[in-house]
Design brief:
The complex is a heterotrimer. By secondary structure, chain A is of the alpha/beta class. Chain A is built from 12 helices and 12 strands. Chain A is globular, with a radius of gyration of 21 Å. In chain C, the strands form 2 sheets. An 8-stranded mixed beta sheet of chain C has the order 6-7-8-3-9-10-12-11, with helices on both faces. In chain C, helix 8 links the parallel strand 7 and strand 8. In chain C, helix 4 crosses helix 5. The chains are: A alpha/beta, B mainly alpha, C alpha/beta.
Chain lengths: 372, 324, 349
Amino acid sequence: MAGTGTAHLRPEDETLLRVQDLVVEFPAGRRKVHAVSGVSIDVRRGETLGLVGESGCGKSTTGKAIIQLPRPTSGSVRFEGTELTGLSGKKLRDVRTRLQLIFQDPISSLNPRRKVGDILAEPLRIWRRGDRSEQLAKVREALDAVGLDPDVAMDKRPHQFSGGQCQRISIARALMLEPELIICDEPVSALDVSVQAQILNLLDDLKERYDLTLVFIAHDLAVVRHVSTRVAVMYLGKLCEVGDPDAIYESPAHPYTAALLASIPVPDPAVRPDDEDVLGGDLPSPLDPPSGCRFRTRCPRARERCAAEEPEMRAVGPDQFVACHFPLVGEGGDGAGAPAAADGDGHADQSARAAGSERADGDGSDGDGSDA
Amino acid sequence: MPEPATDDPVATDAEPAAGTPAETEAPTEPTTVDALVEEVEAAPTRKLGVLGWVSIVWLVGITLAALLASWLPLPDPDRSYLEIVRVGPVQPGHLLGGDGNGRDMLSRVIFGARTSLWISVGAVGLGSVVGGVLGLVAGYFRGRVDTVVSMLFNVLLSIPALVLALSLVAVFASAEQDVSDTRKTNVIILALAIVTVPLIGRIARASTLSWSEREFVRAAEVLGASHLRIMVREVLPNVLPAMASIALLGIAVAIVAEGSLALLGVGVRDVPSWGNMIADGRSDLARAPHIVAVPSIATFLTVMALNYLGDVVRARFDVREGGL
Amino acid sequence: MTAPTESETLLEVTDLRTRFRTPAGTVRAVDGVSLTLDRGRTLGIVGESGSGKSVLSRSIMGLLPKRNVTCEGSIVYDGREISSLPPAERRKLWGADMAMVFQDPMTALNPVIRIGRQITEGLRFHLGLDRRTANENALALLRSVGIPEPERRMKQYPHELSGGMRQRIMIAVALACGPKLLFADEPTTALDVTVQAQILNLLARQQRERNMAMVLVTHDLGVVAGRADDIAVMYAGQIVEKAPTATLFANVRMPYTEALLASIPKLDEPRRTRLKAIPGRPPSLIDPPPGCRFAPRCPYAQERCHREAPPLRESEPGHVYRCWYPVGVEPRRDGAADRTDTPTPTGAR
């Protein structure tokens, strides 16, 4: 089977969310848009999974498919042991209260005709939680938690707030039903740099305060690295690389991850970008993705094998997994990723699982991230 | 929230909470260059202006007069005064003169407003409710529902309004049947409402299609709201302004349509309406032009006012949406 | 066509003020900006949304509506005062003298006109070329901006191309008549990071080959750091700091610039360190605060800052800033001690 593989998944009893072989396809006339093609990810309680990639890589679709909006074409989404793909009606609505979504566009995600107080009370009214005064108290508490003055904010409408403040309101709304997992779909991409930092700090605080688990979707690698305890890189509907952010950012194993990292403009005049494009060409159409490895059409390391055979996810480090036939980490002295080892997919799978659980204890502390 | 906050992580941090009163009370002003340009270019059309106020005063005045006609110190609109037969304005006791039968024009134009406005507002109101619901449902659910509803709209649109009204009146309220004016009025309202349904419905559908794409609709779904709740609470309030601006224009069109029906001889007969006043005055056009002019001017002013306000509503709502 | 004796200065803007009369009040979008740009050089203008950076470049180009917009101050382009020219004369400068690349190529390109005509139109209008020569020039242009199969692209419509391709087309349109000054207004904000790198490289190459001056407007200090000769930081309609790029990054004087640098998540910082966010939000441009406009958000603000607006001061040749208590210059009074971390950017990732 030419899948993207599941070597990077951890034992299911350790995870809060486990997505396996997720496929999302949209009809486009007589053809199909292959938005997500066999993505497997898992998230432990308390973790922040950074899902990163460029537009069209399927990261947002993956995030939305987790809460069944839209329903995935195939694959499994298990949240606390409950399979979500088969649920419908009331049961699905019930589960969704524990999974929330924060959107990219803070203005589009708030109804311009309703007052902020109503927007925040709406989830409580839908679920008939508490009476009016209890609801009011909760709304005030949530506004306070996201750093807005309830007395001022309650009776205003969204357009009276700046983008950053609207995003705070969105976050407050996502908190109203006391969810366990929040999927943040590019929550800071539409904001100015200075405001972006405020929102990132806020998310960090709320995560601590309410014991949240986050899936953080973004295209900005620096932002993702900043917030994540684990990172997954996507390209054209597939996973490229998964693992510990420090490992991945220090020595990316997938050529695409490396290209992404090299493309980030650095706020330092000493780093003169060279004129050669790190990555040439355009993203292939998701209507007709390339055979084998989907990145091969733009990959500097692509060979014949990449077109014929789809790479499977395998371990190249203690908590670093890559779906590439010719990963880059061999150069760094790490033997695990050398092309020669690529055939032993089955074994890699097992060692990966072992390596992953060894690493498990160290995941939360992440004190080892130092300057490169 | 799991537990009440003991400390505020944002406030205790070095950065003060971004919602200090001084900040949230800052006036909303456009910041990006595109928003600024839009603001200065749209400003004149968005202001209500003198014309807008004149329009509102006229409409409120004519509506109040129509509603309170029976209590106003007006002569009986059906009574003939021999001294004012075909006499133009201004006459003592008869401000706008009299018509061919010596009936008081001021009284008739006010009682006529009652009929004309009732027919047009009733027709557009009924059409808007039906069209709005159909359009909202079609735009929200899309797919097969949308196909069927859109087909219905297209069929209705292809029926010429006057032909439909003529046929309906002929079948349900023809002169031979000797029906009451109330029944005739209702048939005309129904006919004009049928024509209004697709006009309002298509606007409601298009507007719903774009608003349903907004993320706050997704957010409501994620929060567990039912489709009905989302349609009524989230989508409808945003679709209403577009419908309102078209409905205002629709009322204007319906007033004219009522007049056309009267001219064709199928309108209401026993009570005055602006349409049948114009129809009655035709024969005296050369001798006493004021008999046609008075209801025509009333029609013209009302239609203009409605059109102007419709534009203002649309401009306001466009910018509001664009500026967001 | 350029005489060897001409001055080095291509553009000199003095005390430019652009105001928008809106229903909410008069927005002072650009409030007394002065700058100069030499031939072939790149000026980076950095600021957040609402800082006036985009209004500034459009004011210089003469791209703003006339109604309810006033634009005062002097704009000397190539030795000629252009601010007082009638709009028709201003328009003659577009294309062959100055051109602009916009943030969103989808709205800047006409959706119902084929790519080919959008490029050749300018060539035929400004340079008076015949259809054939214009077509040949357009093909060469598309090739030079890295568009594969230019013949086919000429016949396509904008929506048939990817975002990166469209931005390349926009650049081709802007470069068609060989402008001496190119305004690039957030040219890569709508693009992905790998495509952004491609487009910035393209702009840099074209600029070098054509000896064209460029004003690169962006909110991202990272974009201008490696590419601009000089950087002007804008805040609330004013330039608050301007210096040669290396000087600026080595000796930040303006607390706003410092705060902006500190708020960017960096790849070489330890993970999950708390970001130094700038509290609050930019001031109203209808009624800006009386003193320093950054004072309400400034960690070092003193009483004087709230009262008196600081003038632009020069600390070293070419380095100006607008602050009473600049970073790393005078010994600060209280409040400065707890901010010891000057965000001198560390080396490569």
